[in-house]
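C-alpha cells as discussed.
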C-alpha cells in the first residue's frame, strides 16, 4: 500500500507499532498475543506487566493514559475479555484513551461450543468509541493506526481490538506489511481544532457583559492542557472558576478565583456561587449529572455558553446563548487575543461575593480539616494531604466517599499538581495510581482510596513490588463502605439493625501489615498527628507504600447543596 511493505509476522508488526507510538508499558493477564509479547522483548524496551486481574489491567492502562495523555494498553485472552470490558467503564465515563486488545473467535470453531468462548464483542460496544475485529494479519497496520486515531481524537475514549484466535494467534501469521505509525496520534490532543472566530468572539462578548459569570471547567480542559489559558482568561476578566471532579486540576484550589468542585461530589461554596451566577460558561464539560448535581446546579434555564471539542455536546443539557466548537486551549487563546480587560471592573462586587462564600466555607470546615479527634476524621486526612503533598504530585482518587472527601475537602496547591479521579467505578484508584506511576515515574503519585475500594485489587500490591512501581497509597480505613450508611439508615426507617450494618461493614484489617507481607512498605496511622510524618516517610521510601489510616466509621461527607 505504501510501497515499503515487507514480509513480517503480525507479532513483529504489532510490537514495532507499539514502539513507534511510544508505548512504554502494556498491562495484561496471560495468555494473549503470546508471540507479540515474545517479540516485544527482543525488538522493544516495552515493559510487559503481568498483573492479577484483567479489570486491574484496564484500570492501570487508564491511569497511565490519564497521567500521560498517551493511550494506555491492556490485554486479555478470550476468557478474560469481559473482565477487561468491565474495567473500561471508567475510562469510557472519564473519556480516557485506553486501547484494549483481546483474543477472539476463530471462524473454524465458532458456534461449536469451543472451550471458554462466547461472543465478547457486544460487551465492548457500550464502553468503546471503536470496537473492531482483526481477522486477517494484513490488517494489523491499518487497524492499530485506527485504534490510536480514535482513542486520542475529539473527545478521547477507549477502543477495543479483538484479534482472531482465543489468544490472538493471528499474530503468528505473516503478510506484506509496513508498521507505520502516525506521530500525531501518540497522545491527546492529536490536533487543536480552532474555533470559528465569530462564535468565539460572541461567547467572549457574553462573558464580558455579564456581571455575575462563572466558568465550569471540565475534563476537556485537562485533556487539552488548557489550564494556563483558563486561569489567564479568568484573571483578566475576573471570573470565578468552578470545576468538575474530572477538571479539578484546571485551577489550584488556593487560587483567589477558585470556588471548588461543583455538583454532587462537591464543595458547598462552588454550588452556591454557580447558583448565584447570571451566566455559566462550560468549558470541556459534558454537563452531566455529577457535575450539575443532576441539573440542579446550575438550574436549567440559567443563561449559559459552552466550549467543547465535540459539537454534539454543545447545548445538550443547557440551552446556549453562544456555542463554540473547538479545542479548549485554542478557543481560550483566541479569546485572550481579543479580550477587553476593562470589562473586569464590572465584576468587582461579584468576585468579592464569591470570595466571601469561599471564606464562609473555610470557616465552617476549618475545625474538621484540623480536627484532632480520635478515630481520625477524614477531613483532617484531606487537610494534611493539602498541606503536605509535593508541588508536582499526581493525586489519584477513588469514588464514593473518597470522591466526596477529596473532591470537597482537598485542595491542589500548585498548577504543577495533577488530579485524577474514578468516574464511578469503586476500586479504580489503586491500580490507576500504579498505572500513573508507570507513565510518569519521575513524579510522586499519591492515591486516596477507602478500604472497600482498596480490597478490590489488593493483590496488585504484589505487582507494585515486583515491578518497583513506587506509588504511595493512602487507605481511609474505616472498616466498611460507610458511604452506604445513609442509604441503609433510610431503608431501615432511621436506625439500622446489626444485620443492616453487616451489609456494608467488614472485619477490621491492618492493611499496613498486609502490605508488608507482600513486600511493600506498610505504615499504620492511628493518630492525626502522625499523618504528616507518614507521608514524608512514604514519599522518600523509593518503594511502593501503603499508608493505612484508621478513621471514624461514623464520619459522613456533607451532601451537596443546591
Ligand atoms: C463497581 C462499584 N460497585 C459499587 C459501587 C457503590 N459504592 C460506592 S461507594 C461504596 C462503598 C465505599 O467504601 P470505601 O471505599 O470503604 O469508602 P468509605 O465510604 O468507607 O469511605 C460502594 C459500594 C461503586 N461505586 N462501584
Ligand atoms: Mg471504608
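Sequence:
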Amino acid at each position: 500500500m505504501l510501497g515499503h511493505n515487507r514480509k513480517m509476522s503480525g507479532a513483529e508488526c504489532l510490537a514495532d507499532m507499539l514502539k513507534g507510538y511510544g508505548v512504554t508499558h502494556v498491562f495484561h493477564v496471560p495468555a494473549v498475543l503470546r508471540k507479540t509479547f515474545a517479540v516485544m522483548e527482543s525488538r522493544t524496551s516495552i515493559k510487559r506487566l503481568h498483573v492479577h486481574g484483567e479489570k486491574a489491567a484496564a484500570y492501570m492502562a487508564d491511569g497511565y493514559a490519564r497521567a500521560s495523555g498517551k493511550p494506555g494498553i491492556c490485554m486479555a485472552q478470550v476468557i478474560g475479555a469481559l473482565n477487561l470490558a468491565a474495567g473500561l467503564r471508567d475510562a469510557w465515563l472519564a473519556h480516557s484513551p485506553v486501547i484494549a486488545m483481546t483474543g477472539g473467535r476463530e471462524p473454524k470453531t465458532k458456534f461449536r461450543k469451543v472451550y471458554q468462548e462466547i461472543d465478547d464483542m457486544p460487551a465492548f460496544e457500550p464502553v468503546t468509541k471503536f470496537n473492531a475485529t482483526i481477522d486477517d494479519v494484513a490488517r494489523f497496520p491499518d487497524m492499530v493506526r485506527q485504534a490510536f486515531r480514535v482513542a486520542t481524537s475529539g473527545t478521547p475514549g477507549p477502543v477495543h481490538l479483538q484479534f482472531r484466535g482465543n489468544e490472538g494467534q493471528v499474530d503468528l501469521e505473516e503478510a506484506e506489511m509496513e508498521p507505520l505509525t502516525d506521530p500525531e496520534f501518540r497522545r491527546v490532543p492529536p490536533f487543536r481544532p480552532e474555533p470559528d472566530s465569530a462564535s468565539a468572539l460572541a461567547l467572549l462578548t457574553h462573558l464580558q457583559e455579564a456581571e455575575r459569570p462563572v466558568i465550569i471547567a471540565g475534563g476537556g480542559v485537562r485533556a487539552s492542557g488548557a489550564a494556563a489559558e483558563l486561569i489567564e482568561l479568568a484573571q483578566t476578566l475576573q471570573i470565578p472558576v468552578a470545576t468538575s471532579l474530572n477538571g479539578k486540576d484546571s485551577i489550584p484550589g488556593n487560587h483567589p478565583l477558585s470556588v471548588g468542585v461543583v455538583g454532587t461530589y462537591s464543595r458547598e461554596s462552588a454550588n452556591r456561587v454557580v447558583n448565584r451566577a447570571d451566566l455559566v460558561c462550560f468549558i470541556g464539560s459534558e454537563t452531566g449529572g455529577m457535575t450539575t448535581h443532576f441539573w440542579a446546579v446550575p438550574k436549567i434555564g440559567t443563561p449559559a455558553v459552552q466550549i467543547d471539542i465535540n459539537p454534539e455536546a454543545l447545548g445538550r443539557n443547557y440551552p446556549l446563548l453562544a456555542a463554540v466548537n473547538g479545542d479548549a486551549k485554542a478557543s481560550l487563546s483566541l479569546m485572550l487575543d481579543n479580550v477587553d480587560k476593562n470589562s473586569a471592573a464590572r465584576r468587582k462586587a461579584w468576585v468579592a461575593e464569591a470570595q466571601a462564600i469561599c471564606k464562609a466555607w473555610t470557616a465552617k470546615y476549618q475545625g474538621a480539616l484540623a480536627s484532632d479527634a480520635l478515630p481520625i476524621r477524614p477531613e483532617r486526612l484531606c487537610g494534611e494531604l493539602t498541606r503536605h503533598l509535593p508541588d508536582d504530585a499526581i493525586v489519584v482518587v477513588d469514588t464514593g466517599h473518597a470522591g466526596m472527601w477529596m473532591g470537597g475537602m482537598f485542595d491542589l496547591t500548585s498548577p504543577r499538581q495533577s488530579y485524577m479521579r474514578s468516574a464511578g467505578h469503586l476500586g479504580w484508584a489503586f491500580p490507576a495510581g500504579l498505572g500513573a506511576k508507570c507513565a510518569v515515574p519521575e513524579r510522586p503519585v499519591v492515591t486516596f482510596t477507602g478500604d472497600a475500594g482498596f480490597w478490590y485489587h489488593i493483590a496488585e500490591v504484589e505487582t507494585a513490588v515486583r515491578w518497583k512501581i513506587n506509588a504511595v497509597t493512602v487507605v481511609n480505613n474505616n472498616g466498611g463502605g460507610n458511604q452506604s450508611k445513609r442509604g441503609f439508615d433510610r431503608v431501615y426507617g432511621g436506625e439500622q439493625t446489626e444485620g443492616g450494618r453487616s451489609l456494608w461493614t467488614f472485619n477490621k484489617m491492618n492493611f499496613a501489615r498486609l502490605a508488608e507481607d507482600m513486600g511493600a512498605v506498610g505504615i499504620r496511622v492511628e493518630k492525626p498527628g502522625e499523618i504528616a510524618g507518614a507521608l514524608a516517610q512514604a514519599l522518600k521510601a523509593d518503594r511502593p507504600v501503603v499508608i493505612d489510616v484508621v478513621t471514624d466509621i461514623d464520619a459522613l461527607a456533607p451532601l451537596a447543596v443546591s
